[in-house]
Every structure is written in C-alpha cells, then in structure tokens.
C-alpha cells in the first residue's frame, strides 16, 4: 500500500480532512460517500473501516482515476484541530531530567523504572492546539520549547497490556509542548506547599500546543522507539536525541494511561522531550524566533513567535 498521511486543510467551506498519497491530496468524504470523513476525527471514530478504505484508496490512486489537489496548494491546519484529550508525560527523557536537576541544584532520583514508578502525566487543553507554520503570541516572560512525538489514538483502549498497546495507535505527528516557565509556580505560596504548582498557567495558553504537519499512519512506523528528533531555534540546534532514550516507551505510556481512564479515538499522547530545553540553560524564546521540530519519518513542524 502507498504511504498515506492524514491532514486537515483550509477549504472554501472551512477545515476539511484530506488523505495525502504521493504529494497529492484526496477527499475521503467524497471518495467514500461518507460525510463523517470530512474531518480527521470522523475518520478516527471509524478507524477499522477507514483502514480498509485507505488500502482501497491506494489501489485506486495507482490506477490514476481520481481527482486530487496538490499538497503544495493546500494551507495545512493542525491535523486534529481539537483533539478529544491531550495527555502529556513529564520527565520522560533521562538526559532532560538530569539537566534540569543540575540547573537547579536538585538531587537526582534513581531511574523511575528501577524505583517501580509509573509514568507521570499532566493535561493540555485542546484549545491550545495550533497547526504547522502557526504564529504564537509571546504572552509570557519565559516561553520554552519542547519537541515531542505525538501519538494519536485510533481505537478505544482500557486496561490494555503493553504488548498490545500500539494496536490502539492510529498514527503519529510532531508536537511542540510550549511551556510558560515563569507561570509554573504560584507567587506567595510556600516552597513546600502542595498547592504551589500551576499546571494550567505553565502548560495551557493560546498556541501552547503546535501540532502537525500531518498524521503519519502507525503502519508506516512499526517501531516508534527508533525515531530521531531534533529541535532548532533560528537554525541553531537545541535538542537532538532519539525516542529510544525515553524512560517509559510509547507502549508503556498508553498501557498505563488505559489503567486510569479509557482512551478514545482522537485522544493525543505527548510522549516527552529530551535535553536541550531553555529551562536547562535560562534561554527562552523571543519575538521573531522560528522554532523547528523534526522527527524522523514523521515530518517537520515550524512555529513562529510574535
């Protein structure tokens, strides 16, 4: 089967889903006579059937009988403009944990796996999502970058074992978990207080979750732990690592989440960021900056700061 990517693009009637094959965009709602497929969420809600359609579409495209639009002519939006829920794992690359601990003079705990701990998650609002080439307002004094692999759920998952967790993945995208470091802690609250940390202010604001440029199908990436990732700011490389450096794998994260809550099609899991973020050095984004996050076999996500 030809490789397929899922996109959302701006059409005359508003955001519309498309399937990219070989640089051309095809309209699944028209081809399969199903209005639900006009959105990527609609395709995910019918994912098992949709996968069969995608195999069929690849065969039809090979025959050259379908109308299409060149990808380069489309204005891409976030592939999932409003995901159902965005789960974000924290402190999931050892080098990032070590760098932050060193920066703030903190003692370094043993590997969470060795301590028998579970992955540690927080949430981002779906309203934070923006697409490729988006411009994000500089609304914080310390805006930081975090290049991450985004996992898009395609099948309902509840209490799934690790060895079956990837069966519930529809595909992967590139994400940037932008963070307002100066809003991470509440003022005038004691350092030892459990009420000191502000996850809403830290991780949720307009434009806080750039995602895109498309969703690459999971079938095209059989081993997500083998993907290289690189983040650059104005052409200077800030982060360069590989998913094999994760503390908890993609499968382990999905399996754990599914023991706490049911995962549904359209949910997104951000899987952690490697060393090289601004919090480790005191660097932060400024107006006019251009941030690029690139993940091997997935794509490149560009974000501008205004």
Features:
306 residues, alpha+beta, 12-stranded mixed β-sheet, 5-stranded mixed β-sheet, 6 helices, 19 strands, 17% helix, globular
What does this entry look like structurally?
43% of the residues are buried. Strand 1 (5-11) and strand 2 form a beta hairpin. Strands 1, 2, 3, 4, 5, 6, 7, 8, 11, 12, 14 and 17 form a twelve-stranded mixed beta sheet that branches. Strands 9-19-18-15-16 form a five-stranded mixed beta sheet, with no helix packed on it. Strands 10-13 form a two-stranded antiparallel sheet. With 306 residues, it is an alpha+beta fold. The longest helix has 16 residues, at 47-62. The protein is built from six helices and 19 strands.
The 3D shape can be described as: globular
The major β-sheet equals: 12 strands, mixed
Structural class: alpha+beta
The share of residues in helices is 10-25%
Residue fraction in strands: 25-35%
Q: Which value, in Å, is the CA radius of gyration? A: 19 Å
- Annotation, overall tally of beta strands: 19
The average pLDDT value, as a whole number, equals 96
> Number of helix segments?
6
Distance N terminus to C terminus?
41 Å
Low-pLDDT residue spans: none
Order of helices and strands: EEEHHHEEEHEEEEEEEHEEEHEEE
